[in-house]
């Protein structure tokens, strides 16, 4: 970690280390000693009224033996002017709200202009849930050890972790394998399926027929984006069932879409027979028109992607299907579980898995560090960026998943690959164009590149 900090701040002359009373404090003292040996001006701020123990105490004693000095914490900002701050206050065991001088110390660090590096996890962040326990250090970089803590990757954690680095500290290979077998949480990048190469003799029917249902009056854009996304990732045929108010012109700039306006669910039957996957929800609305189409869709045996307004309608029902994907954002997740948005953000892992348990099938809880719950394990998406916080992104994702499923991937594989491609395309887009002003439709050319 010290080597990484030196690379990040090669011209730094001073370093201040905030130490707590647990093992993280020992890491802080080791960094302080290494900094002294490297010729930096070093100050250690010791918080807490308990004595260190074990290896942490040994690390402190080695620092003192090098004539290192230890100060008590005070809130005078002048005492905290430094080039680098090391956050070694709390480790992975934090389960209570941060208060008192601990909170004051975190506020002092966050107000500083110094480069902040957190040991193992930013102090104040819950290692299991990613929730902020009242307040948390906003780090420029975090080096985590032994194992990748799941709370570093999702929700509000993405605001405070900064650049994330990992070292297993050379733990025994057998122990590492044993831990891997016990994990129920995985980084999605380790488990991404791939599309197979197309046969030269294939035709449009070889690559599936997606049926998308949605687009109440005034909400035609959502279903059009989802449909275009399904085409973009390679679906052979894409049909859109929408409201008659705009059906005649919905495909005016995308003639490849087959669009039909329907007044009632009774008109759905011939289109359901031709499709091999259904996506319902973008712009569907919750009026009687949307409700009738939704209930007709539920009665079929098709694999389904349930999104947007369809999730709101589903939240009023008690039912399970094994062959659907639910794609809620935090607001929709709150409705599905009958809780508040803050409840969802308090433990996104619990929320994703609870939705999957209640409704069966697969669930992707969207947001920073999207989570996929499949009933056996939870996968974390490391990709994505703040530019994706814009209308239409979820609609595009729905189309991507449906388009991949249509091409023969299992529902689970289509979901895993879909969320990965969607976020990767957005990451490429913001490198080229920036986060602000990103359109959901800006992802199309990069999605096409990625699937090829």
Task: Write a short abstract of this structure.
With 452 residues, the protein is α/β, with parallel strands linked by helices.
Note down, in words, how this protein is organized.
The strands form 2 sheets. A 10-stranded mixed sheet has the order 8-17-16-15-14-13-12-9-10-11, sandwiched between helices. The two termini are 38 Å apart. The protein is built from 17 helices and 17 strands. α7 packs across α15 and α15 packs across α16. β4, α4 and β5 form a beta-alpha-beta unit. It is elongated. The protein folds into 2 domains: 182 residues, YjeF N-terminal domain (Rossmann fold), CATH 3.40.50; 262 residues, Ribokinase (UDP-N-acetylmuramoyl-L-alanine:D-glutamate ligase, 3-Layer(aba) Sandwich). With 452 residues, the chain is of the alpha/beta class.
